[in-house]
Design brief:
about 20% strand, 7 helices, two-stranded antiparallel sheet, Rossmann fold, globular, alpha/beta, five-stranded parallel sheet
């Protein structure tokens, strides 16, 4: 079974990102691969991991984790085959908390697949541009289809201090289903690479 994480990419209180992630989870639950028992989606909230600003003394590429919070985060990410990053756009970029969480790890991301659901005044598309570059460096295959939610047309917001309600346009759910299908397909296709890497790491070096 393919396991996909839906990562809530903001830690801000009253974040609209959590509302968007819940919508992604609801739609994913209706995906044919999920109802057939071939895939599963799980929401992963950065808030639950309490990651500080990157505090590992050794670069993540060496996987020499010294802190319990890093190990816990690494075990969580390692257990998934692919990811849906749900992200707002802050000042033309993804949130610092999301980039920080990504930078804690390296191998745990490798040879997996990612898709993006973004939201904001500009639908978050500029944040995703940066995330695609980061994912490529981490050997994560980016699927082409993207869901971009506008703060003006895809949410019902009466108070800017509250997350509001999600009200996606008619085209958004079919686009999301298409993106999820791509993530599942690519996650399956990359499995031999993940298996090969796992076997090579299990063999002791003489």
């Amino acid at each position: 079974m393919v396991r996909i994480a839906i990562i809530i990419g903001s830690t801000r209180p009253q974040r609209r990102t959590a509302v968007a992630a819940q919508w992604v989870g609801d739609v994913a639950g209706r995906h044919p691969a999920v109802t057939a028992g071939e895939a599963t989606f799980e929401i992963v909230d950065l808030v639950d991991y309490g990651l500080p600003v990157l505090d590992e003394p050794t670069p993540a590429m060496f996987a020499d984790y010294r802190n319990a919070h890093t190990t816990r985060w690494a075990q969580a990410i390692d257990s998934f085959d692919g990811f849906v990053f749900v992200t707002p756009e802050y000042n033309h970029a993804p949130p610092a908390a999301l980039k920080n969480a990504i930078d804690f790890l390296f191998a745990e991301w490798n040879n997996k697949t990612a898709g993006f659901v973004s939201h904001g005044v500009h639908a978050g598309v500029r944040a995703v541009e940066q995330l695609r570059l980061t994912m490529t460096e981490l050997q994560v295959a980016n699927v082409r289809t993207q869901v971009a939610l506008s703060a003006f047309t895809d949410f019902e917001i009466t108070d800017p201090t509250e997350p509001g309600l999600i009200a996606p346009g008619d085209h958004q759910e079919p686009t999301l289903i298409e993106m999820l299908s791509e993530i599942i397909t690519w996650s399956r296709a990359l499995k031999p690479l993940r298996d090969t890497t796992a076997r090579s790491e299990a063999v002791p070096v003489a």
